[in-house]
Design a protein that fits this description.
alpha/beta, 4-stranded mixed sheet, about 35% strand
């Protein structure tokens, strides 16, 4: 029986730079940073201090999880900025937006009202986009929002 999600993968282009971004700019903590043998795979995980059961593993596409052609395709999609990697839940989206902006986080959408809460979108230093979401509890179908509209 599944009891929860423990690790989610975020594909990154450089583990050292990603580790700095997720810890210094977003305030996550390092859980693991281990290399397996000389030139082997590196396992880097980060997570929110108050959520010890969930880790993000910052993985560079490549062996042993995929062949070189697939790795290049993933790297290309990450660099292109088309991969959404998830949503971070926050208590105050506007305040977090201001804090992260001051730390140099690249936002592609300022905080806006959505049917599910207040949301801002940002990119990590590899190109992945994330949501900062301040949930409101109930889904508001009257909120003026069209997710398919071009900005």
């Amino acid at each position: 029986m599944i009891t929860g999600l423990g690790i989610a993968t975020v594909w990154v282009l450089d583990q050292d730079e990603a580790k700095k971004f997720f810890t210094e700019k977003l305030g996550l903590e390092v859980r693991h940073d281990v290399s397996f043998g000389e030139g082997g795979m590196r396992w880097v995980t980060v997570g929110a201090k108050d959520q010890p059961e969930l880790q993000l593993t910052l993985m560079v596409p490549g062996p042993p999880t995929m062949d070189p052609e697939s790795a290049e395709q993933i790297r290309s999609l990450v660099a292109k900025g088309v991969l959404g990697a998830g949503a971070f839940i926050v208590d105050d989206c506007q305040k977090t937006y201001e804090q992260f902006s001051a730390r140099g986080v690249d936002f592609i959408q300022k905080p806006e009202k959505r049917p599910y809460g207040i949301e801002a979108l940002f990119r990590d230093n590899s190109g992945n986009w994330f949501s900062l979401t301040q949930p409101t509890g109930e889904f508001d179908q009257t909120a003026d929002w069209d997710p398919c509209a071009q900005k």
